[in-house]
């Protein structure tokens, strides 16, 4: 049984149909043309639990201000240039995690409080997640000029 006090930092196959963000190589038209069920076997797609995505959402919002217009619940495609800015933003976040920034200070510095009151942060698991997330996005960008985010 999963410990409900820890975060779900796993990277899944896409098309899970629960509170996840699907990330798909290509633009919105490719996503729209792909049957949702086939995303589960698409090598150019993966999913992240909403609670884990909250740790990268601030970096996306800083790199692409349109995000704040409700794309948490919608579908958008981000260019390679935007993703590179997201990675730069996450670099500072990683540094703060490594240096021991208290999670309660995330809201003031990053405009987000993904921890809430019910979870404990495992810094090592978070750093592994951020590395894996970036690696998967870079892999998609090696084959596509954009990566589409399908919000919850």
Protein described:
30% of the residues are buried. The chain has five helices and five strands, in the order ββαβαβαααβ. The chain has one domain. It is globular and about 45 Å long. Helices cover 41% and strands 15% of the residues. It has helices spanning 28-33, 50-63, 80-98, 106-110, 123-141, and strands at residues 11-12, 20-25, 45-49, 75-79, 146-150. The model has no long low-confidence stretch (mean pLDDT 87). A five-stranded antiparallel beta sheet has the order 1-3-2-5-4. The longest helix has 19 residues, at 80-98. With 152 residues, it is an alpha+beta fold.
The rounded distance between the terminal residues' Cα atoms is 24 Å
Instruction: Give the integer mean of the pLDDT values.
Output: 87
Number of helices: 5
Q: Which structural class fits the helix and strand makeup? A: alpha+beta
Q: Taking strands numbered 1, 2, ... along the chain, how are they ordered across the largest sheet?
A: 1-3-2-5-4
Percent helix: 40-55%
Silhouette: globular
Let me know the largest β-sheet. Answer: 5 strands, antiparallel
Rg from alpha-carbon coordinates: 15 Å
Give the tally of β-strands: 5
Uncertain segments are: none
Write the element-wise H/E pattern from the N-terminal end onward: EEHEHEHHHE
The share of residues in extended strands comes to 15-25%
Counted up, domains total 1
